[in-house]
Amino acid sequence: MKKKIMIVLLTIILIVGVTAGVIYLVKNKSEKSNPVKVVSVMTISGGMYSDGRYSGNLIGNDCQKLYADNDTVIKEVYVTQGQTVKRGDPLLMYDKTAENLKLNTKKAEYNLAKANIAVAEKELKKLKNTKPVEEIPTEEPTEPVTEEPTENPAATSTDAPKEEGVVAKPADIEPPASDDPSDNGEIQYTKEELAEAIKAKEAEIDEMKFQLKQQQLDIDKQAKLLSDGVVYSRLDGEIETLDISDENIAAGGEIISVKGEKFYSMILTVDETSYSKFIIGQPMNMMSYDTGGQYKGIISKVSTIPAETYGDDSTSYYSVTVDVINGEDLMEGAWIEASFEQINFDGTSDSLILSRAFVREENGKFYVFKDDNGSLKKQYIKAGKIYYGSEIEILGGVTADDYIAFPYSKDAVEGRKTKIVTVDEMY
Questions:
Q1: Res. 170: pLDDT tops 50
Q2: Is the pLDDT of residue 178 over 60?
Q3: Beta-strand pair 294-302/237-242
């Protein structure tokens, strides 16, 4: 009997072993015959960019016009109608007293908000250092024991004097002092209550920091309205219109216009994180892809009203106008790249842009699957800005020399064999 049992057990073990071996061989053969495709990062990247570099088409203009708004207060006018002016000549100066007062108010509100955040962070730290109290189990209520009333001889004595309207009161009893050393008047939390309190405080701080970011943006916007208050001519020409009457200003009319030689400008779209860098009168370097020449530009206008968003509703974008100073050989529609003066057009790059399709997210961290000596490896990356919701800036973890796989494929498993392919073969 024992011999038969042993034979059955050995047979089962043999069958299981052979089956596992077959499965392994089939799987291994399948992986070798169907490796994961990987493609060069260089061929799928959105390009290499340096922060502060922007592109756009040139727009031709032969007239500069200024219009009044509700807050327009003109302090001084430097020109007369019909006068000839050169590019850079002052036209008029706005009174910035009201804007300056608004800016100081916004700065005071910002400082107060920062102080409130500091207080909230101290409260959070205190909560995290708080020890929860133990929950006291509730006891089941018991039925009160009733006793038969007994006759009190003193109460029934006919010798005791009685006073009408007087009710006997028990003597005042002081409550016993607490023996709990932690009972110092502070709120006590159970473990669950403490976790909820910490979570709520962290959410409160996150919201306060978000509002602080918006306040900083409001300060940047208000600062744009200040500068020196002087409006300069953007072209060589003649003062065609000049009307600073109260009626015209109240109606939001055209207060001044300059007509003259055509000049070129480009409109940039910048996100709120870069917005504070753009100041009216600030110089920029410009390069034409059509002529290959380099030019000088100057920021002539910075919008304080958000432009149309591009997919990412959580980020605001603003338009910035840059005038070309020495662009005599340029043509309208030419593709121009502009950067701040400290950035050179030498082909250097600080970051890499990848499509979000090749990047996955896990618990707030981004990663890719890249080739590592013929095998697929899960590689976490350091991410920067997200552009338009579809592209992501790579600051570390992947270089342009790497090869990566499509991470949403069922074959994208760490350890699988890889095969380098072209972009056309990838899809």
A1: no
A2: no
A3: unpaired
Q: Which CATH number is associated with domain 33-49+350-426?
A: 2.40.420.20
Q: How far is CA 261 from CA 61, 79, 140, 150, 295, in A?
A: 8, 18, 95, 118, 18
Nearest to 97 by CA among 115, 72, 125: 72
Name the amino acid, one letter, at 34. Answer: N
In this structure, what DSSP letter does residue 325 have? Answer: S
Residue 3 has a pLDDT of 63
Q: Give the domain ranges of the chain.
A: 33-49+350-426, 53-94+234-340, 97-133+189-225
Cα four-point dihedral sign 229, 235, 236, 241:
negative
Averaged pLDDT, 378-382? 92
For the record, the structure tokens of 290 come out as 């059509």
Q: Is 176 exposed, middle or buried (0-12, 13-18, 19+ CB in 10 A)?
A: exposed
Please state, in angstroms and rounded to a whole number, the distance separating the CA atoms of residues 196 and 187: 14
Name which residue leads in pLDDT, 2 or 214. Answer: 214
pLDDT (average), residues 77-83 = 93
Q: Is 119 a residue whose pLDDT tops 60?
A: yes
Assign domain 53-94+234-340 to its CATH architecture: Beta Barrel (2.40)
Give the 3-state secondary structure of residue 228: coil
